[in-house]
Amino acid sequence: MTELLAQTGLNALYAASYISLVAVGLVLIFGVMGVVNFAHGELFMAGAYAIVALYADIGVPFLAAVAAGLVFVGGLGLLMERALFRPLRDNPLGGLVASIGFLMILQALAVMGFGVRMEHIPPPTQDVIVLSEKVRLPVSRLVVIVSAVLLLSALWYFLKRTRFGWALRASAQDPEAAALQGISINQTARIAMFIGAALAGVAGALTAPLVSVNPHMGHSVIVTAFIVIIVGGVGSLEGAVVASVLYAFVHTIVTTFYDGVVADIVGLSLLLGVLVVRPTGLFGTADRA
Amino acid sequence: MLLEMQGVSVSYGKVSAITDVSIKVPEKGVVTIIGANGAGKSTTLRAISGLARARTGEIRFDGERIDRLPPDRIVARGVVHVPEGRRIFPEMTVEENLHTGAFLRRGAPDVATDLEKVYARFPRLLERRHQLAKTMSGGEQQMLAIGRALMAKPRLLLMDEPSMGLAPVIVEEIGRIVEEISAEGVPVVLVEQNAELALELADYAYVLETGRVSLEGPAPELHGNEHVRAAYLGV
Ligand SMILES: Nc1ncnc2c1ncn2[C@@H]1O[C@H](COP(=O)(O)OP(=O)(O)O)[C@@H](O)[C@H]1O
Ligand SMILES: [Mg+2]
């Protein structure tokens, strides 16, 4: 029984790791720019296809391909900022609609480039860490967990200790007051989009060998998007990051122990609970003017 | 003249907020803009700092046009705006707020010295440096907003109703701080509904009424003006 629990815990930890990366990127973009990025799941998908193209098709070493995926999807984020969200800055609904358009373009490109078939990618390593007879952790999953911990710690350090991290937090709390400190809105938007997209891309790239890659794999991210954004609230960027990691953990643990439907119900109840107790979100304070 | 605003109009959609406003700020001293709620005082400051776009006219700082620059470029030139309602970053510590004020001065060695100076001027901020800004009282938050602005090493300080909602002792302290800043060589544009305080501190004053400059002159002169006394000083 403890062994079953330990194994399930490891599975949940793995899933929560990559979902955290996706969710944190979403709240970062929402916090700084005030737009819900509907194409976020497709950025995750784009990261997975970077692995198909570079690692599976032409044999680039796995971690190098992941790094390339990070840069490529971060670049897609920059493109979205410049082409969609900046021209529509005063129009959050427009930004949302534009991101839906971008989602469709990315899906169509994936279909055109790779077809609709599922891609099964051979994992970079078949090694398994055997903790006991029934508790096993494939190294490819451990890579995902360790990468998520490292990336989220780096993000935390960036937000708390660096000049641009402060700028991002300031913009999320009060964009106008941030501008009055000499912080350029274009610059914080670029940074938030790059980091947010890159985190989604890295999550897609790292998990590509462990899931079936297909052009519609980003689909389920949208529900997560709404829940983490509301639970995370507006205002404190670090709070939103913590909330989205917590949500990812609760959701995946419930999914592993019960099932996905129950997890969605728990997630939505969590959301309702938070809205009743703290209408501005778990960590949010200020209203966005 | 350090700052010259010439014939500036700003509107929000179809609503005109200020019309044909001209204001001059010399290299030193305090210039005040007084007026009733809704007269256009904040909009005037927002036009200078780039938060609001001038529809007509021009704004020159140090002889150069700034009215088409984004706010961050205007700050870079040394025009620093302490906005109405303080607008400190609530979820950041006092010290992080102060560092944010020095955002454009990346790691310059004198940033640390200036931080010490701000703490010397406002000992309450030093006591609370690691506290979240939202946990502070209104007066402390106003001190923080001023301290944050000083961290930018301003060449011109714009202050929008720093006395708003504060107890009389704190208002007096704010008055002293404005005088000190001006004495240290940084000219101040002070917007106030508290006309008594403003006319006492200022060298030159403008009166805004429904978006237009209705009266201007040396502050003591305006303090003695019949209309100003009746409308703004309540005597
Ligand atoms: N964001 C805004 N949208 C629409 N109208 C505004 C806005 N801000 C100010 N106004 C209007 O512009 C006029 C001047 O406002 P403001 O500059 O804030 O005056 P004051 O600071 O003197 O109280 C008022 O009539 C006000 O209602
Ligand atoms: Mg005002």
From TrEMBL, chain A:
Membrane topology: Multi-pass membrane protein
Main location group: membrane
Transmembrane segments: 12-38, 58-80, 92-118, 138-159, 191-211, 223-250, 257-277
InterPro entries, A to Z: ABC_transp_permease (IPR001851), BCAA_transport_permease (IPR052157)
Keywords, comma-separated and alphabetical: Amino-acid transport, Cell membrane, Membrane, Transmembrane, Transmembrane helix, Transport
Any Pfam family: BPD_transp_2
Compartments it resides in: Cell membrane
Family indicated by similarity: Belongs to the binding-protein-dependent transport system permease family. LivHM subfamily.
Protein name: Branched-chain amino acid ABC transporter permease
Organism: Paralimibaculum aggregatum
Lineage, top ranks: Bacteria, Pseudomonadati, Pseudomonadota, Alphaproteobacteria, Rhodobacterales
Automatic annotation (TrEMBL), chain B:
PROSITE patterns: ABC_TRANSPORTER_1, ABC_TRANSPORTER_2
UniProt cross-references to InterPro entries, sorted A to Z: AAA+_ATPase, ABC_transporter-like_ATP-bd, ABC_transporter-like_CS, BCAA_Transport_ATP-bd_LivF, P-loop_NTPase
Gene3D superfamilies the UniProt entry points to: P-loop containing nucleotide triphosphate hydrolases
Record key words, sorted: Amino-acid transport, ATP-binding, Nucleotide-binding, Transport
Transport found in the keyword field: yes
CDD domains: ABC_TM1139_LivF_branched (cd03224)
One Pfam family here: ABC_tran
Every ABC transporter domain range: 3-235
Coiled coil spans: none
MF term (GO), any: ATP binding
Family per record: Belongs to the ABC transporter superfamily.
Protein name: ABC transporter ATP-binding protein
Organism of origin: Paralimibaculum aggregatum
